Amino acid sequence: MISESNLIEVFSLHKINHTEYFQKVYEHIQDGIVVMRESREIIMLNPAAKRLTGWKVGDYVPYCSFCTTRNRRVETPSCYLMANEDVPSILSQMSTNRKKTLDVEMSVSVINRNVETGENEYLLVLRDCETMLKAQEAALNKKMIQALIDAKESEHKRLAQELHDGVGQSLYSVSVALEAIEAYMQDNEKLSSYVKEVRNELRKVIEDVYTYSYNLRPQSLDQLGLKAALENLIDNMKKMAPHLIFELTTQGLDRCDPAIEINLYRIAQEALHNVVKYAQASYVKISIRKNNTHIHMKIEDDGIGFDRKSIQNKGLGLKHIEERVDLLSGTCAIRSEMNKGTVVEVTIPRWRPNT
Ligand SMILES: Nc1ncnc2c1ncn2[C@@H]1O[C@H](COP(=O)(O)OP(=O)(O)OP(=O)(O)O)[C@@H](O)[C@H]1O
Ligand SMILES: [Mg+2]
């Protein structure tokens, strides 16, 4: 770090004209710099201040919303910052000539005493908070979406366990009981075939419960990881689309952060559902590659493709894919061409960003 005294040394060493140097700082700094009289008449302002406020030399700096709305006695000075030298800065809103008020962080300090008039001159620094607030708002939104997705996933996990361990197991017990009853009914053919029917129905319900439970939260994902869960997903999808050939290839894929695994799983699930529902494809390939820094996943089909412009507002699946990737600070490309198939490609950092 350069101290004040050796800054002068650096200037002389490099033969820098420090007046010109500070002039450049004054012109290029992003904070608005205004010099005003005690009367608040502007005597100087830098380009950033002009850009932010539209003020010019000779204008009077208005009082900010903090001073115009606070309760003050008549003898209290109108400008809080000019009256309180020990207050470094405040956040407030300032009227401008740009037809809008500006959210600003402001500081005021005495910069000079005019020898002729004996009047103080003040340096007012304005920092635009709007951009900063927008960035904070976007970060907060991202955190909230992340929290919602996490909450949804953990609720899914709980429901999946309830369905599997609770409802599924109870139904299984009923089925075993029916089997026993059936054994006692050998001599009553009508009743026996009725019980058989009920048992068959029950078997289908049990299968459905396990499928719902699996779809809510694939247990293999938590236990065995993404590859096993995708293999299971593909096995289930083959039942829905027996003519479609699925291929899954992975490279370097060991276990990842659970949030990354579930998000990649959901992305693949959505993309594959779309292939089955719309693509009329004969072949779909899922390839996943993990290297030292990133995980790439690509799902490509040889189907009829689509035009992104003409599917606006059609569904949420592709939008959710993009949102999930964004939350993981990754990038996503969805390319499709009529009759040339569709490719969904995502790349995400191996480590989940701190949210
Ligand atoms: N692989 C694909 N092949 C052909 N068309 C596709 C493919 N994937 C998506 N589409 C088209 O893009 C549209 C939007 O897909 P998206 O997944 O966003 O919504 P959706 O599947 O219609 O509804 P949702 O996913 O919300 O249930 C689909 O309706 C379909 O027309
Ligand atoms: Mg969809």
From TrEMBL:
Its cofactor is [4Fe-4S] cluster. Gene3D superfamilies: 1.20.5.1930, Histidine kinase-like ATPase, C-terminal domain, PAS domain. GO terms for molecular function: 4 iron, 4 sulfur cluster binding; ATP binding; iron ion binding; phosphorelay sensor kinase activity; protein dimerization activity. Autophosphorylated. InterPro entries: HATPase_C_sf, HATPase_dom, His_kinase_dom, PAS, PAS-like_dom_sf, Sensor_HK_TwoCompSys, Sig_transdc_His_kin-like_C, Sig_transdc_His_kin_sub3_dim/P. The keyword Metal-binding applies. Residues 158-352 form the Histidine kinase domain. Its EC number is 2.7.13.3. It is found in: Cytoplasm. It is an enzyme of class 2 (transferase). Transmembrane segments: none annotated. Keywords: 4Fe-4S, ATP-binding, Coiled coil, Cytoplasm, Iron, Iron-sulfur, Kinase, Metal-binding, Nucleotide-binding, Phosphoprotein, Transferase, Two-component regulatory system. This is Sensor histidine kinase. Residues 18-61 form the PAS domain. The modification Phosphohistidine is found at residue 164. It holds the Pfam family HisKA_3. It catalyses: ATP + protein L-histidine = ADP + protein N-phospho-L-histidine. Its main location: cytoplasm. One of its GO terms (cellular component) is cytoplasm.
